[in-house]
Amino acid sequence: MTVAAHPADAPDQWTTKGRATRARIVEVAAALMHERGVAATSTEDVRQAASVSNSQLYHYFAGKDHLVHAVIAHQVDRVLTHQESLLAGLDSFSALEAWRDALVELTSRRRGRAGCPLGALASELADLDETARLALVGGFARWETAIRTGLAAMRQRGELRPDADPDQLALATLAALQGGLLLSQTRRDGAPLRVALDAAIAHVRTFAS
After folding, report:
1. How far apart are CA 38 and CA 41, in angstroms?
2. Is 15 helix (H, G, I), strand (E, B) or coil?
3. For residue 160, what is the DSSP state?
4. Mean pLDDT over all residues of the chain?
5. Residue 191 CB-density burial (10 A; 0-12 exposed, 13-18 middle, 19+ buried)
6. Cα 174 from chain centroid (whole Å)
7. At residue 208, what are phi and psi to the nearest 5 degrees?
8. Distances (CA, A) of 33 to 13, 30, 44, 56, 118
9. Of 87, 99, 196, 209, which has the fewest Cβ atoms less than 10 A away?
10. What is the C-alpha separation between 65 and 129, in angstroms, rounded?
């Protein structure tokens, strides 16, 4: 017997209104899950907050896991789009410092609240949902790639020595960013993020030509 595909697996068949409805559901779910956590957010919570019926919700999502995976994709795009203009030109020490300043300013303005959407999802899901973990690996990889691309350009121009490893430096910078965000969230203060990113950039400077 052939099992019919779930409508959620056929996005090309959605109408413009349908895409907008699905996007609204995902956006609402992302906000609720970031505020409350994934485990504490039910599909009924999302349904009510998005003002959709059960049939609408399950038309686009086969279940909560499917919705969570859509939320991960949404949060990856949102986080990286917010930093897009800075990440696209992250190929000098001044650009690294401008990126640091923008992140610290945002974190300080929020007093560290909410932390990193991807970090929050990773801490809750990485040991429970392998599909979610791999999706988050991909999201962090996109972030790391943007940093690595800038560092590789600096090495190619001769601003960094040939022995500088853009892969390791990018990973160290992203790790510093995530640790700084977590401590800033805990302490309600943007200072830990600034200290962490200052240390990461100082480490990159040790490879300056």
Report:
1. 5
2. coil
3. B
4. 93
5. middle
6. 11
7. -65, 145
8. 28, 5, 13, 20, 11
9. 209
10. 9
Q: At what angle do helices 166-187 and 130-157 cross, to 10 degrees?
A: 120
**pLDDT tens readout for residues 85-139:** 899 999 999 999 999 999 999 999 999 888 899 999 999 999 999 999 999 999 9
Specify burial of residue 80 (Cβ count, 10 A radius: 0-12, 13-18, 19+). middle
* Structural tokens at position 183: 């401590």
Tell which residue, 6, 38, 11, 205, has the closest CA to residue 123: 38
- Type of residue at 206: T
Q: How far is 193 from 117, CA to CA, in rounded Å? A: 15
One-letter amino acid for residue 172 of the chain: A
pLDDT of 46-89, one tens digit each?
999 999 999 999 999 999 999 999 999 999 999 999 999 899 99
- How far is CA 91 from each of CA 32, 86, 148, 168, rounded to the nearest angstrom? 36, 10, 9, 16
- In order of start, what are the domains of the chain with their CATH numbers? 7-70 (1.10.10.60), 83-205 (1.10.357.10)
CB-hemisphere CA count at 13 Å for 85?
4
